[in-house]
Amino acid sequence: MSLSQLPVDTLDQWGVDASWFTLPGKPDDQHWIPVSGGADSSALAILMHLMYPEVPFKLLFTDTLAEEPEIYTTLDKLEAFLGVQIIRLKPELGLYELIEKFGGYMPSASSRYCTRELKLRPWEAFLKGQMQQNQAVHTYVGVRADESSRLAFAHPLIETHMPFLDLDLRRKEVYRVLANTIGIPRSYDRRSRSGCSCCPFQRTTELVGLYQAQPIEFKRGMRVEKPSASDADRFPANATSVAEEVGLTANHLSFPIPARLIDPDASPSTWGRWQGRGGVSLFGTTGFFVAYELLVHPGVGGDGVWWQNFVTFSTSLAGIKKQMDTFYLHRLSTAELKGIDEDQMREELRLVIAFIEAPADLVNTHKLSAESFTWKPGVSFAQIRHLVDWGRRSLHAAWIKQELARTVDAEDHPLGWMYEHRQGLKAALEKLNDVTGDVVSFDLYEPREPDPEEEFDETLIACPMCSL
Ligand code: SF4
């Protein structure tokens, strides 16, 4: 599909009232749309071209050479859809080379030199070369109405405009534009902004997603972290995946299915009992919470689960609930990525929290020391890998046992498929000889429903420049 193939009433269909925004300056001024390969700037470029087909907008992308791989796919799709070429600036030194140049000093909220060196300066230098006398330069930034406190790049010689604010367009409308044109970037399945793979402004759930979806990028990021002496060997990669150990493919394994998913009248788990069990116990075990998501549909049969994903971990119940409330909001707003709408997502999504106990000599749930230098304050990539691996391993092992308990009756029906299934699980359990964590308790978690009037707080994770 291309821009010219959209129906004439497209803006109405998308709920956009173009009269709320007036194009500044003259059509023969310079009109620039910096694109990041993410959702907001891509949707903005599409809308601006649709609203002002007569204006020769120019699109610019400044590469950090550490971008999410999918960013390049989105840029390609945008070019093809709009029929315009995006100017792509490549730096001499990418993000990782810059870190090396700065003696291994990683960017952070207090020192965002990555943005300055890789986004602001190249953009500024390039634009200066484009400026002409008597021609104003306008730039359009995809800051949405639900994030009006976010900063946008400003420059004395450039007039910056934020059409989404005038048009009162929020996350939902932005995703609608993309879902109906080039598609929402797949990486939004696990993160809420575009940018560098290892950007320090990501949430823990996003970094857990990065580890599972882009292990090479994750390892690249892990190599530049500098753990303190006490953290250096604290989080080893010592949990083999169950799939690897028993010789099953991952899609033949599942996470435990909560009783309340099968029987709504089943008693809920006693959440209170879990409180305070995190940390090293007196008995040589340690405990942590993990959370996963299930998509269920009655038409699928069995327990109805048609998709599942490990979401995050925490050493406290309050911490994991907080993460899951934010994650729920993200899932609702990116429902299209699963081929369903927001209402269906609300219907089909089940969030599960589990508490795992594991031998304290193998699994480490200590907090990171303040002397460690990591992408995200308070958590290291090695720690994420360690706890995600142990979490997944323990959940898969628990599911095999749960499934064996559920299929006991199949032993009496050796010709049935369930009998075959059961024999496979028995063989798997026999091969599972290494230690696993013990899933002490697990249950559905009902997240806090988002308040539609509430702004989605992204100020802590937004990179004002990278998400242009
Ligand atoms: S996306 Fe993150 S790491 Fe990349 S330039 Fe922006 S702030 Fe820096």
Tell me what the structure shows.
With 468 residues, the protein is α/β, with parallel strands linked by helices. It has 2 domains: 3-189, HUPs (Rossmann fold); 204-445, no CATH class. It is 36% helix and 13% strand. β1, α2 (39-51) and β2 form a beta-alpha-beta unit. The radius of gyration is 25 Å and the shape is globular. The structure holds iron/sulfur cluster. Residues 64, 107, 112, 114-115, 118-119, 195-196, 199, 201, 463, 466 line the site of iron/sulfur cluster. Iron/sulfur cluster binds at residues 64, 107, 112, 114-115, 118-119, 195-196, 199, 201, 463, 466.
Ligand identities: iron/sulfur cluster
What gross morphology would you assign?
globular
Low-pLDDT runs of 5+ residues are: 458-462
Q: Helicity range of the residues?
A: 25-40%
Helix/strand structural class: alpha/beta
Keywords:
single chain; 468 residues; alpha/beta; Rossmann fold; 2 domains; 5-stranded parallel β-sheet; 5-stranded antiparallel β-sheet; 16 helices; 36% helix; binds iron/sulfur cluster
Could you write a compact summary of the structure shown?
It contains 16 helices and ten strands. It has 468 residues and is an alpha/beta fold. The strands form two sheets. The chain has a five-stranded parallel β-sheet with strand order 3-2-1-4-5.
Give the secondary structure arrangement, pairings included.
Blueprint: H1 10-13, E1 30-34, H2 39-51, E2 58-62, H3 70-82, E3 87-89, H4 95-101, H5 113-130, E4 137-140, E5 159-161, H6 163-167, H7 171-179, H8 204-213, H9 215-224, H10 242-246, H11 259-262, H12 271-274, E6 279-280, E7 285-296, E8 305-314, H13 317-333, H14 342-348, E9 349-359, H15 381-406, H16 417-431, E10 438-445
Helix pairs in contact: 2-3, 2-7, 8-9, 8-15, 15-16
The site of iron/sulfur cluster has 13 residues, from α5.
